[in-house]
Amino acid sequence: MSEFKALTKQGLWENNPALVQLLGLCPLLAVTASVTNALGLGLATLFVLMGSNITVSLVRQWVPQEIRIPVFVMVIATFVTIIQLLMNAYVYQLYQTLGIFIPLIVTNCAIIGRAEAYASKNKWHHAAIDGLMMGLGFAAVLVVLGGIREVLGNGTLFDGAELLLGEWAKQLRIELFSLDYPLLLAILPPGAFIGMGFIIAIKNRIDAKRAQIQSTEKTVTRARVTAES
Amino acid sequence: MSFKVAAAPHGHSQKKTNQVMAWVVFALIPGVIIQSYFFGWGVWFQILIAVTVAYLSESICVWARERSARQALRDNTALVTAVLLAISIPPLAPWWIIVIGTLFSIVVVKQVYGGMGQNIFNPAMAGYVLLLISFPVQMTHWLPAAPIAPYDLGLWQTLHTIIFEYTPTGYDVEQLRTTVDGMSMATPLDGVKTALDQGKILTEAYQQPMLGSLAGIGWQWLNLGFLLGGIILLQQRIIRWHIPVGFLAGLLVPSFLAHMFAPSIIPGPIFHALSGATMLGAFFIATDPVSAATSDRGRLLFGLLIGLLIWVIRTWGGYPDAVAFAVLLANLCVPIIDRYTRPTVYGHHSGAKHDAE
């Protein structure tokens, strides 16, 4: 159970693939112009990450050390092909919007990074949870960044969610304000870099604040120990 | 006898940062007066809004960073950024344009990077690029200069247009740009570029109504006004000659050579020197002491790079003018320029070589 907790904490916050490891930045920056796109790619990455982690972990005894990377890439490519065909079949418009970035999930360093660093050394159920948490952490950052950019650049949230979730999702669309002239920069690639920088800065700020609180608590306990001895 | 040991540098300029920056603003005055003569009262309102927003946002940021707001406001750097941005944008641009631009310049480009002296990019130009990319329509709506303008706007009409985006009588900026024959008037740089893209030759392109004797009506005097301000800065030793000379050489030498080779399709050096933001860029924008290169040779290179980039973008790029893009691109190159133009330390052979060994 503690392993589960540690993996959750690592994936979602302390070792978040997007915010801390800064892996997979290419899709992260390229497709986060709206929440729908971000969520679509986030879920696809999550699926691939879990699948590849489980498979890599299951076959790890039979993979020779020398050729492990090509094997991992083949495994990842298999899952990417599966998700690509599924998206082509069920969410065709989103598939077209995301375009090249679905096949490019193969090259997402976050996935091969987890296969190499965790799945190839741990049991399959741990690897599955690791994949789930890392994938959720990555998807969460994608959605937050997508939200920021969509609000600034379009004034809406969940615009086009029906492409991903079906007809009912049309009600999800929130129009916060209507802009005659949207802030195009937020939608364009520089907006992704600037938004990402701000998210990382906020995370670092929170971490620094927490470290500060912890260090003051520690000094108090040490003072007490000194008094007793 | 007392042997007082003083640390280097031994030669001092008595001018403090706030005085240097105040001189920069002072030297802008001739250009701003000429701009307000040719392009209406708008520029004064833009400066007013920009300076207010800059000071407010700078105080809030400095306060949030737990530093002295009075100290930060007194160095006048926010003032220079605000004024430069305000004179770069079209005078009749709606008020929220300058507010967004100034906020971005001060908060994101300057304070987030660590405040005065820490910014990698020129704040005013980064703000300008944000606006140009995000709001291309408003940012290219320059009115024709006063002698050929179809309408003459008063003080109140200008203010009304900036606040409500149309005049009290109901004209919007697009209509104000439209002449009697129904053609909307482009800036000289834009007009010549469009004409050349359409396959016309230079003499035909120069026959458009907004072209004057040297470059564009109004624009040529505006550039001469900023040149005058630049000479004041040079004379007061606020800036050194390296960046403006490099800038103008980088822009004018290629345009001269190209004009010699293809006199009918490539505009000559005089047109480039007195169009768009050339002089403002050469003397006021590229010379920003924080984001420019530091050594003399480095500054010469930095200026050359900006000038060359402007010429390349003006000639083949998608935008009519390019001072802001060129300055930002050159800002990116500053670390590498500084690395390879490090002056020789006294007693050593060569700064860069020695370091590489």
Labels describing this entry:
heterodimer, A: about 230 residues, mainly alpha, about 70% helix, globular, B: about 350 residues
Number of domains of chain B: 2
Largest sheet of chain A: 2 strands, antiparallel
Order of helices and strands of chain A: HHHHHHHEHEHH
**In one word, what is the shape of chain B?**
globular
Oligomer: heterodimer
Instruction: Output the number of helix runs of chain A.
Output: 10
Number of domains of chain A: 1
Radius of gyration of chain A: 20 Å
Low-confidence stretches of chain B: none
Spatial separation of the terminal alpha carbons of chain A: 37 Å
What structural category do the secondary elements of chain A indicate? mainly alpha
- Adjacency order of strands in the biggest sheet of chain A: 1-2
Question: Per DSSP, what share of the residues of chain B sits in E-state strands of 2 or more residues?
Answer: under 5%
Tell me about the biggest sheet of chain B?
none
The average pLDDT score of chain B comes to 88
Q: Count the beta strands of chain B.
A: 0
Helical amount of chain A? over 70%
H-E string of chain B: HHHHHHHHHHHHHHHHHH
Characterise this structure.
Chain A: It is found in: Cell inner membrane; Endomembrane system. Chain A: Part of a membrane-bound complex that couples electron transfer with translocation of ions across the membrane. Chain A: Its main location: membrane. Chain A: Belongs to the NqrDE/RnfAE family. The complex is a heterodimer of chains A (229) and B (357). With 229 residues, chain A is mainly alpha-helical. Chain A has one domain (2-228). Helices cover 70% and strands 2% of the residues of chain A. Chain A contains ten helices and two strands; from the N terminus they run H-H-H-H-H-H-H-E-H-E-H-H. In chain A, helix 3 runs parallel beside helix 6. The longest helix of chain A has 40 residues, at 189-228. Chain A is globular and about 60 Å long. In chain B, helix 13 runs antiparallel to helix 15 (278-285). The model of chain B has no long low-confidence stretch (mean pLDDT 88). Chain B folds into two domains: 15-184, no CATH class; 185-339, no CATH class. Chain B is globular and about 85 Å long. By secondary structure, chain B is mainly alpha-helical. Helix content of chain B is 62%, strand content 0%. Chain B has 18 helices and no strands. The chains are: A mainly alpha (229), B mainly alpha (357). The interface between A and B is small, with 10 and 10 residues.
